[in-house]
């Protein structure tokens, strides 16, 4: 699983009547950020103050990440972090849901509503696999520090917080303490990025230096996600303004949307 696969699996929380994807209005941007995080951890890219640099174009094992790497390398001029995240396809969450289905982490039923749009019902989720992910997240959150934890697990924790998934991961009254721990961990680790006041002339040198700076990349992703989410809450509009999941069609994937009637039993969910 990539970090994006793991992020979506954590976002899928079974309820009494439905299995739903939580915080879906933020999720696609966090999934896009997770791809950069994985490529950064693999040493393939570095994020400079003005652009994303491809440092090594050698293929990576995961097909989707390899396609992202190729797209980054083929984009001229190289994109900035801001531009790359803001161009996130509306179909991205749907694409990741299909990935989880291929990995047998979820079962999904697809159907068309009267308008012809494709809808998705999540019928089941691999709870043991999700629980194993939660255990990894707990190892970061309950340690109170990123020290002695895997870079990828720390990045996953940061993206969970940024995407507003803490209530899905640590629900209800029992989760209050862990939600606070997660928020504190991410807030304490969000130091000013090393590139904030960098000389633009030093872009290439900085990019090379950042290939080993997983913590720096995580901070950059967090900062840009925060700015992006804030933009969708200005002018009296909510974060979800113009982000109707029922209109997703980019990339040829089916769009998603909520099924108004729901299901009577607890084994089905609608999205």
Topology readout:
Layout: H1 3-11, E1 12-14, E2 19-21, H2 24-41, E3 45-47, E4 52-54, H3 63-74, H4 81-86, H5 92-102, E5 106-112, E6 118-125, H6 127-141, H7 151-162, H8 166-169, H9 176-189, H10 203-210, H11 214-231
Antiparallel strand pairs: 1-2, 3-4, 5-6
Helix pairs in contact: 1-2, 1-5, 1-7, 2-7, 2-11, 6-7, 7-11
Structure description:
This protein is mainly alpha-helical and about 270 residues long. The protein is about 45% helix and about 10% strand. It contains eleven helices and six strands. It has helices at about 5-10, 25-40, 65-75, 80-85, 90-100, 125-140, 150-160, 165-170, 175-190, 205-210, 215-230; strands spanning about 10-15, 20, 45, 50-55, 105-110, 120-125. It has a two-stranded antiparallel sheet. A hairpin with a 4-residue loop joins β3 and β4. The chain is globular.
First and last CA, distance: 22 Å
Strand content: 5-15%
Largest sheet: 2 strands, antiparallel
Rg over CA atoms, rounded to whole Å, is 19 Å
Instruction: Give the count of helical stretches.
Output: 11
Percent in helix: 40-55%
């Amino acid at each position: 699983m990539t970090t994006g696969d793991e992020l979506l699996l954590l976002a899928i929380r079974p309820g009494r009547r439905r299995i739903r994807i939580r915080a879906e209005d933020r999720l696609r941007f966090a999934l896009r950020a997770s791809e950069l995080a994985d490529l950064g951890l693999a040493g393939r890219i570095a994020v400079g103050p003005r652009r994303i640099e491809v440092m090594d174009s050698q293929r990576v094992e995961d097909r989707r990440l390899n396609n992202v790497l190729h797209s980054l390398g083929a984009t001229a001029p190289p994109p900035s972090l801001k531009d790359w995240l803001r161009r996130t396809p509306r179909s991205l969450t749907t694409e990741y849901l299909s990935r989880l289905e291929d990995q047998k982490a979820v079962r999904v039923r697809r159907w068309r509503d009267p308008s012809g749009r494709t809808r998705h019902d999540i019928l089941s989720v691999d709870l043991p696999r999700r629980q194993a992910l939660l255990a990894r997240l707990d190892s970061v959150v309950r340690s109170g520090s990123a020290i002695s934890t895997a870079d990828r697990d720390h990045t996953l924790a940061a993206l969970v917080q940024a995407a507003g998934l803490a209530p899905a991961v640590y629900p209800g009254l029992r989760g209050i303490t862990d939600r606070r721990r997660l928020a504190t961990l991410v807030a304490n680790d969000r130091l000013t990025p090393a590139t904030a006041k960098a000389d633009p002339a030093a872009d290439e040198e900085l990019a090379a230096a950042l290939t080993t700076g997983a913590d720096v990349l995580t901070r950059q992703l967090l900062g840009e996600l925060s700015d992006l989410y804030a933009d969708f809450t200005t002018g009296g509009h909510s974060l979800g303004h113009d982000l109707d999941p029922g209109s997703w069609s980019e990339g040829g994937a089916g769009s998603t949307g909520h099924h108004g009637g729901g299901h009577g039993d607890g084994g089905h969910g609608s999205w």
